[in-house]
Specification:
Blueprint (H helix, E strand, L loop, with lengths): L1 H36 L6 H22 L8 H5 L5 H33 L2 E3 L2 E2 H5 L1 H21 L12
Antiparallel strand pairs: 1-2
Helix pairs in contact: 1-2, 2-6, 4-6
Length: about 160
């Protein structure tokens, strides 16, 4: 299982690096073509907009993998130490629930986009590019459910420890 997670994590890391590198190269090429050639790639702007969506969701998936999402830890400062695992568990469940809801409704959104048949650019269907939304939120929901389960067993890593 650890080996599978290792390769899945490397895949996520490689994918975000590839998308970001592609974005930078395409943006630089677009600027160069406009400034020096007086032309531009018609499909570059919509592709870059969709790549920003992918970068955001891939980044959120990676942050959930390491339990490094933005959080406000007021409870840690004011609650007794014995209550913190309970609060953390509730936060994990709440986060997973929100991710499940968002994932569910984004599946409905992608289905509607598929039925509508819109294209994003160069004949690429928009639903294909937006499919990262339900995928990302489903992965995050699963990761927070795993964190909750680890917390029930007293094995949840702290924020400083990476999650396998």
């Amino acid at each position: 299982m650890r080996r599978l997670l290792f390769w899945l994590h490397r895949f996520e890391d490689g994918l975000i690096v590839t998308v970001l590198l592609g974005m930078v190269l395409l943006a630089v090429a677009q600027i160069g073509l406009r400034n020096f050639g007086g032309v531009s790639l018609v499909w570059a702007e919509p592709l870059l907009r969709n790549a920003v969506l992918w970068i955001g969701l891939l980044g959120a998936m990676i942050a959930s993998r390491k339990d490094e999402h933005i959080r406000i830890d007021l409870a840690a400062n004011f609650l007794p130490e014995r209550l913190l695992p309970w609060v953390t568990g509730l936060v994990d469940l709440f986060t997973a629930g929100i991710c499940v809801l968002t994932g569910w409704y984004s599946v409905q959104f992608v289905i509607e986009e598929y039925k509508f048949g819109a294209t994003a650019f160069a004949g690429v269907p928009s639903w294909l590019l937006q499919a990262v939304i339900p995928l990302g939120f489903t992965v995050m929901a699963l990761r927070y459910l795993v964190l909750f389960g680890l917390g029930l067993r007293g094995r949840r890593p702290s924020m400083r420890e990476p999650v396998a």
